[in-house]
Amino acid sequence: MNKVRIDIVSDVVCPWCIIGYKRLEQALMTLSDEVEADINWHPFELNPAMGVEGQNLKQHLQEKYGTNDEASDAARQTLTQLGNEVGFPFHFTPNMRIYNTRKAHQLLMWSSSEGKQLELQLALFHCYFTDNQDIGDEAVLIQCAQSVGLDPSVAEKVIRDEGWAESVATTEQQWLEAGINAVPAIIINQKHLISGAQTTELLISALRQITQE
């Protein structure tokens, strides 16, 4: 059995991040007799300056990327189909909003030490993309943390602690300085970078090649 360290740099409001992870999950299931993975998630905020009220998702994409309604609708259809293929339910709505994710990343960073990071990461993806909840809202975040077995009183302290906020910002800066400027970014054994939501087949091939080196 080959052991690998997999670092995933992502944001909770990035649909390609959950698709990329689910494809990685499929690859690791295929290689379950060959590869054992230690997965670690790292913060990357797509919109660090986003206000607490968030913004309508279509409006945000139009302002940031120049995406019109037709292109946005087509992208949503594609993402929904790809989500179905990997077993993740996207539920896009006309009023869907994008939110600030700093506090979510604070919880994710803390949850790593509690052995609950992967569970919380997946819960947050579902909370936002499937249940259309405001993942910048403290009550929603605390409920997410509690749903995976984390202490809600500690979770509340973490999301209100400036020290955790600074740790997230520092970590994000380190990834930027390392050349990571888009997500998802998957780093295997701290030296092999796979950018974007690559196919399961490519991930299987890459993992086999890396573990056989």
TrEMBL record:
DSBA-like thioredoxin domain location: 6-207
UniProt-listed InterPro entries: DSBA-like_thioredoxin_dom, Thioredoxin-like_sf
Highest rank taxon of the organism: Bacteria
Stretches of the chain forming a coiled coil according to its record: none
SUPFAM superfamilies (alphabetical): Thioredoxin-like
PANTHER family noted in UniProt: GLUTATHIONE S-TRANSFERASE KAPPA (PTHR13887), THIOREDOXIN SUPERFAMILY PROTEIN (PTHR13887:SF41)
Name the record gives this protein: DSBA oxidoreductase
Originating species: Vibrio variabilis
